[in-house]
Specification:
Chain lengths: 529, 175
């Protein structure tokens, strides 16, 4: 070993000389600069792009090319570079939302350069587009009322027909055509209003565009299924009891299927469990609500009491199944609402659970204390049973009303539920200080507001302020934002792609004058700290 | 041996790492109290755009700055008062050039050029002081690159995207 030492020393010396030559050769080169990209930074695209193109001022080699899509998952992008251009194929289909593409390239001089491109797929953020907030409130109220009405109508017609066909041996009473017509009108109105909401209009007439819009997603199909179910249940398709039973069961299945297509529970993972639970929950709920009016009628009259006895014996099994399916759905949703119980979704859930608890007590009272004496002909028990079924109808109305509110706890509400409370950060430098406040927005972006102060806490008037963001945790290279001077003396920027604050570090760059720049650096605290 | 190799490899990477071709000064060292020829090397424009103006801030402690005229560019010399009074060849100096501006020329992004001036680091500057010379590069279409980042404690110029060019003042060799 020791004998080889001079050889090593020579090699090392040569290597150093080579390094020096490298320095001299590289000295005259320029580092690579991103000149253009497609999509461009901060683009809002209606259709998700399949490719991303970056153009630099000189030939580069790709070291790392990755993206963070709206779902927060980081993925590598396969890239092909031809000289100064890099093409990357984006994994598809991209979900709507903000996409951050990060690159790290090495230019001819061996100097790595990193950066990020942010673009948005889908509608511009709801906050910026919902200029007309007041008409949409009226529209939302209308949608809510129509949804309650059509759901109750659907339950009374479809669930009621199922009850009549399967539990009343005396034969099915036809649902009144007037009620069916009202329900059909309500379903159609719901379709139109939903379409109006999709295109961002208030209540009004916009010809056929809302309908086309409603059919762009599954809403249109769901509403059509409800119409089919109502017609199956209400029209005299099958005169014989046996076929009538089959038709009523089909109607119930079709109506339940409609509920699995819409609503955000339907996209919870694993999906088939979520949709199966919704189907079961919807089918039993429709049957239960639909049974209440015929039961009320039966408890008034002294006619054949067998349906009441059947129902009383049978109902605990589906009722427990319905509760279990609902519970499963709630559990599947809870990880997504663990942070903000103040969100609309969570409040509706809590309210609904409360109503269901009251309903359970009432059902238990019915089943174990009232039904037997009522069937035996005890008039007091019969009166109480009527009162109890009436209360159940009231509760059903409230539960449907509460569940219909979930329509407004849509994807934005999720992110609101996910969003952390505003975080603030004090940054201290040698020549200046910054008070930074970052407010997460419902659409998964964040707004930032920075006050620049002198070391004596006096307000400062810098020439410009910019913000660098970087997330080493998720492999996001630096993003740069110029802050604009707000009227109140602070510096602000919006639409920062920070749905999750964890792992971000900030670099507030304060240009005091032409030649003086202060970097104020720090890490964003996570909301729970 | 392995340590030797590791050092060498590290050395190569170090050298390669610093070769970023920002706006830099050719001579890394200046002798205190002696004239220093500062050669600013401009290797590229601002994000692909041509350079039309170079502004150099003469930092405190660099005395009797004189720019070298450059064909195709007009010079602007801005005088100012120093924060302190310095001793230059036995005479007190309190003022001089504080900013030099070359403008009116056009240096394409794919071209290279040098901008030269001369200064004398004051004897009062302690040895081994690193002097940062902030430079603002202005380009067509209003684009600006500010080579003015001065590293905070615990950081080096490599940690910044647009570091200010710098040189080290070394003590006069004893004769």
């Amino acid at each position: 070993m020791a004998r080889n030492f001079p050889l090593w020393a020579t090699f090392c010396l040569l290597a150093r000389v080579a390094g020096l030559f490298f320095l001299l050769a590289a000295g005259a080169d320029a580092h690579a600069v991103l000149i253009a990209s497609a999509p461009e930074n901060n683009d809002i695209l209606t259709v998700a792009p399949e490719k991303i193109l970056l153009r630099f001022n000189e030939a580069v080699r790709v070291v790392r090319f990755s993206m963070v899509a709206a779902d927060g998952v980081a993925r590598e992008i396969s890239a092909s570079s031809t000289g100064a251009e890099i093409k990357g194929s984006l994994p598809g289909p991209l979900a709507d939302g903000t996409v951050i593409v990060s690159y790290r390239v090495v230019s001819e001089d061996g100097h790595p350069v990193g950066g990020s491109i942010v673009f948005h797929v889908g509608k511009p953020s709801p906050r910026s587009s919902s200029v007309s907030d007041i008409p949409s409130k009226a529209l939302h109220t209308a949608i809510w009322l129509v949804t309650i009405g059509s759901t109750l109508g659907l339950a009374i017609i479809v669930g009621g027909s199922f009850f009549n066909c399967w539990l009343s041996p005396a034969g099915a009473r036809r649902q009144s055509p007037a009620l069916a017509a009202v329900a059909i009108m309500l379903v159609l109105a719901g379709l139109y209003l939903q379409g109006l909401d999709d295109i961002g209009m208030g209540p009004g007439w916009a010809e056929l565009e809302p309908i086309a819009q409603a059919f762009a997603d599954k809403t249109g199909i769901a509403q059509c299924l409800k119409l089919v179910a109502i017609m199956l249940a209400a029209l005299p398709f099958a005169p014989r009891p046996r076929s009538a039973r089959l038709v009523s069961a089909t109607a119930l299945a079709v109506a339940s299927l409609a509920f699995t297509l819409t609503g955000h529970s339907s996209i919870a993972q694993p999906r088939f469990i979520a949709q199966g639970s919704i189907f079961l929950h919807a089918a039993i709920s429709l049957f239960w609500i639909g049974s209440l009016p015929p039961l009320l009628r039966l408890s008034r009259s002294t006619e054949d009491q067998r349906p009441l006895r059947f129902f009383s014996r049978l109902i605990p099994i589906p009722f427990v199944l319905m509760l279990l399916a609902g519970l499963l759905l709630a559990v599947m949703e809870i990880p997504r609402i663990d942070i903000a119980w103040s969100s609309l979704f969570a409040r509706v859930l809590a309210f609904k659970i409360g109503l269901v608890a009251v309903l359970c007590m009432l059902a238990l009272y019915n089943r174990f204390w009232l039904t037997a004496p009522a069937l035996a002909g005890n008039p007091a028990a019969r009166r109480r049973l009527r009162w109890s079924i009436g209360s159940e109808i009231g509760l059903a109305l409230l539960i449907v009303a509460a569940a219909s509110l979930w329509r407004f706890a849509g994807p934005e509400q999720y992110q609101y539920a996910h969003a952390q409370p505003p975080v603030s950060l004090h940054l201290h430098g040698q020549k200046a200080m910054a008070e930074l406040e970052m407010t997460p927005q419902p659409d998964g972006t964040a707004d930032i507001r920075v006050s620049i102060l002198t070391l004596k806490f006096d307000p400062m008037q810098p020439r410009s302020v910019s913000l660098g963001l970087r997330n080493t945790l998720r492999g996001i290279e630096s993003l740069k934002y110029g802050l604009t001077h707000a009227g109140d003396g602070t510096w602000a920027a919006g639409n920062l792609p920070l749905s999750d604050i964890a792992g971000w570090s900030v670099d507030v760059q304060v240009l005091i004058d032409d030649f003086n720049l202060v970097h104020l650096e720090g890490d964003l605290p996570t909301g729970t700290d | 041996m392995i340590r030797h190799l590791a050092l060498t490899v590290a050395g190569i990477f170090c050298i390669a790492g610093s070769a970023q071709a920002h706006i830099t000064l050719e001579q890394a060292e200046a002798v205190s109290g002696k004239a220093y020829k500062a050669v600013l090397r401009v290797g590229h424009g601002c994000e692909g755009k041509a350079t039309v103006r170079i502004r150099v801030k003469i930092p405190e402690g660099l005395l009797s700055a004189k720019p070298m005229p450059k064909a195709g560019w007009t010079l602007e010399k801005i005088r100012g008062t120093y924060e302190k009074s310095y001793d230059l060849y036995g005479k007190p100096v309190k003022e001089g050039l504080t900013e030099i501006v070359w403008q009116g020329g056009q240096l394409a992004d794919d071209e290279y050029d040098e901008f030269v001036f001369r200064v004398t680091p004051a004897k009062e500057l302690p040895a081994a002081t690193r002097i940062y010379v902030p430079v603002v590069q202005e380009c067509t279409e209003g684009a600006v690159e500010r080579w003015i980042d001065i590293p905070a404690a615990g950081k080096t110029s490599d940690d910044y995207e647009t570091p200010a060019p710098f040189f080290d003042v070394v003590a006069q060799p004893r004769s």
